[in-house]
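Take a specimen:
=====
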Amino acid sequence: MVTSLIGLMVALSVVILALGFYVLIKSANYLIEGASALAHTLKVPDIAIGLTIVAFGTSAPELIVNVVSSVNGHHEMCFGNVLGSNIFNTLVVLGFAAIMAPLEIKRNTVRKEIPFILIGCLAVFGMANNFGFAGHVLSRVEGLFLVAALFGFLVYVVLMSKETAFVEVDIHEMKSTKAVWLIILGCLGLFLGGNMVVYNAINIGRMLHVSEKFIGLTVVALGTSLPELVTSVVAVTKKRGDLAVGNVIGSNLFNILMVLGLTSVINPINYDVMLNYDFIFLILITLIMYITFLTGKKKHLNRLEGISFLILYGIYITFLINRG
């Protein structure tokens, strides 16, 4: 009887969790659509819209989940969500897209964006571990530094290039009043969806007796990464493999710098050193991705490499299950 009741509660939480992910993703789309249209009406250049509103909006699910988790003291969920999301993006999203069709990449992405992600990962890893000294907290000052570093990089991209590899702007013309209402609806939906996701993810973890970091690295990370998976698949079907790669690169960059940065500015995040294994794995696969795209005359990820990425993710998930 008790087992049946627990099973029913887990099933109900899973349904509400899935609904929360849907609300999060839909609300992020509303926010992007409304804010982009309003900015376009105000004569903001498309590249600025792409690098700020669109890029910010695509990382909104991860950001809201992190803010809600941090405010409620679920710090393992904060780091788990970002690390798990970036690992999923790199291995599953890119791997699956590469199996559909070999993914080419723009030169600027290899030369500038991937190395910057690698540097960002190393910097956050050092900050979270307090560079080997006592204390494992991502502080407000460090969070401000991460946000400033991202802002500086985006300004550099705008000044040095007429285009960017990791965003595509699709602006729908609409009246300003409708755009404002979409922005408001998007913000309210993000808040509601974020609370639904965090509350039910924590409940599922407790009922199944698994850690918050496991739920964050797997279930929550997968849910918040669904937009990247869908966007990349659509890009490949349109024979725009460069956009599929750019989508992942942009998402990973914003997750590690903006999502963790803003979350720690709002509320400093305690870091569990057990996540060092996951962090090191993320750094290693980012390096592998960089080397893969750097070598060879054609800067691309082929089907065999895509399959290898998926196998790597399978090995990682097996490691997580055994770790508990």
Observations:
- The first helix runs from residue 2 to 41.
- The chain has one domain: 2-323.
- Residues 89 and 248 are 6 Å apart (CA to CA).
- Residues 2-323 form a domain with the A middle domain of Talin 1 fold (CATH 1.20.1420.30).
